[in-house]
Design goal:
Layout (H helix, E strand, L loop, with lengths): L1 E3 L8 E2 L12 E4 L23 E4 L15 E6 L3 E2 L6 E11 L7 E9 L2 E9 L10 E6 L7 E10 L6 E12 L1
Antiparallel strand pairs: 1-12, 2-5, 3-4, 4-12, 5-11, 6-11, 7-10, 7-12, 8-9, 8-11
Length: 179
């Protein structure tokens, strides 16, 4: 039905509404470079889960591990329109990484939302915490059966919304399946 490994540009738009506030580390479809925290010696930003490309908050590593992480607010990216079949079950599958330093908090997050017209519904959220969290690709699913028969968009939002902290968010290998 819909699949994107981000190896080619399928029309995702960064800051489509013009309301993003992040000062660095905005979402991009790019080749993410691994970063390792000098503080915790943990890898935070990972290379792509498959292939070379992924959606990443600041793909370049920079000269220090926190140079291009998400800072100063939120960043968003919006998928092209996806026409869903009228019957389900419909399931969204994706691989994600959320890594952060111990200066993160619950106001830092990665959200996956479904936009039905202009109405967003959060189907996945992973928040930061005041602990060191190493980068690790994980899989997640969300039931989209409630949107059967509609044309929707997938809307990703990541934020470093509290005090400045080390926060990395990535998404790869997104698929929508029926059955």
């Amino acid at each position: 039905m819909f699949s994107d490994d981000f190896e080619s540009d399928k029309g995702w738009r960064v800051d489509a509404a013009g309301t993003d506030t992040a000062t660095s580390g905005v979402f991009e479809r790019g080749v993410p470079q691994q970063t390792t925290s000098a503080y915790s010696n943990q890898v935070k930003q990972l290379t792509a889960a498959s292939g070379s490309y992924a959606l990443t908050t600041g793909a370049a590593a920079g000269s220090a591990y926190g140079d291009n992480d998400l800072d100063g607010g939120k960043t968003t990216v919006l998928s092209p329109q996806i026409a869903l079949p009228s019957s389900g079950p419909l399931t969204l599958h994706f691989t994600y990484n959320v890594a952060h330093g111990d200066n993160s908090g619950s106001d830092d997050y990665l959200r996956v939302r479904v936009l039905d017209g202009s109405t967003p519904t959060t189907v996945f959220e992973k928040s930061g915490a005041a602990t060191e969290a190493a980068g690790q690709w994980q899989t997640a699913t969300a039931d989209l059966s409630a949107f059967a028969g509609k044309t929707v968009r997938i809307f990703l939002e990541a934020a470093d919304a509290g005090t400045g902290s080390l926060f990395e968010a990535q998404l790869d290998d997104l698929t929508l399946t029926q059955g």
